[in-house]
Amino acid sequence: MATINWIIFTYKIPSEPSSARVRVWRNLKTLGVHYIQQSVCILPSKEEIIKKLKKLELFIHESGGETSILEIERLSLSSEQMVTSKFNQERTLEYKEFIEESNKFLQEIEDETTKENFSFREIEENEAELRRLKKWLVKIKKRDYFLCETNKEASDLFEKCNKALEEFTEKVYLCEGLVEEKNV
User: Less Cβ crowding at N or C end of the chain, within 10 Å?
Assistant: First the structure.
């Protein structure tokens, strides 16, 4: 395992207004931090993460809070294994939720195909859902710093969703007479 540099980010922020606390929490959640304890989190050290933490640090200070950004060259091997395992567990939960929603998408396509509900409205609804799934997957992958095992399963399933929509769209065009059936 390659040596990983880490950032420990600590913060205190006044309890009021609560919107500031929520904003901090959301920003940190978007980064995919792992909380060591309340208001103390750890992340792998990457330039883009440091930039985002510096912006968040400024916001916290403007809100009357305090922060520390500690750059750590190395953790003990057991600590590093435990922390990377925690990151992967957290991403796995996110991927599993994504997989569940992707399977619902595939079921929706299958249901509409079974009912022969081949309409442009269905294409639009399903395209919107597929865009939502894609944005979600991109967000999860951005914070999947250690490529957890579920990454590939989620990516493969998204491709399956994409293909299912392409096939459904082809059937709609066939039903509408906009394309001719391919001779296989």
Answer: C
From the DSSP assignment, how many helices (H) and strands (E) are in the chain? 5, 4
User: 0.90 exceeded by the pTM?
Assistant: no
CA-to-CA separations, 84 to 8, 77, 175, in angstroms, rounded? 14, 11, 51
Residue 88 and residue 98: Cα distance in Å, rounded? 15
Measured between its terminal Cα atoms, the distance across the chain in Å is 50
Name, in order, each residue with C-beta under 8 angstroms of 142's C-beta and a sequence gap of 6 or more.
Answer: 32
Tens-digit pLDDT profile for residues 108-157: 999 999 998 889 999 999 999 999 999 999 999 999 999 999 999 999 99
pLDDT beneath 50, residues of the chain: 184
Burial class (CB in 10 A: 0-12, 13-18, 19+), 137: buried
**Backbone φ, ψ for residue 171 (5° rounding):** -65, -40
Cβ atoms of 7 and 45 within 8 Å: the answer is yes
Beta bridge partners of 12: 66
Are the beta carbons of 108 and 126 closer than 8 angstroms? yes
Q: Please choose, from the candidates 41, 44, 45, 47, the residue with its C-alpha nearest in 3D space to the C-alpha of residue 60.
A: 41
